[in-house]
Amino acid sequence: MIRRSGPATLGVVLLVGVAACGSDGGDELVFGGDPVSQCVRMPEGASMVVGAVMRAPGGSDLVVKKIGLDGAKGVKTDKAFIVPLGSGRSPIGNANYPPAAHAAWESRVPAENATVKADEEANLLLVVSRSGALDGSATGMRLDYLGGTKTNSTTYTFRSDCSSANAG
Fold it and tell me: Which candidate, 92, 91, 94, places its Cα nearest to that of 42?
């Protein structure tokens, strides 16, 4: 199992984005890929932005109904946004909330009822906070859209210290 945290996560998000750009999404929604585990460093009481990249099907626009965490334990999601990744914008992986230093953040729109144009990429962003002193987890990020649901294959762990999670 692969473990990622901090700057390494941004690299994964960028690789997924580049891979999606280089491949024809066809008429299928592209969201996720090989199973990956991410440890998100999140001190108690802090909020983080957790991001993933998706590509809308080539045949039609995708209308987002909701973005959330599947199997969430010990964390809650407060807000969800989408950032279209055209115009040279790079995706946000995991960042402190709000990620004001990231240029893509200014292009965000609320996720509910947002439209991603056919065959275009978008950065799905969730604002996540730990609901207590214990570590949190989720089995994936879930995208509910008009006509279906898809969950990526990323397992998330939310901890105040990810160094022990990356040791093995």
Answer: 94
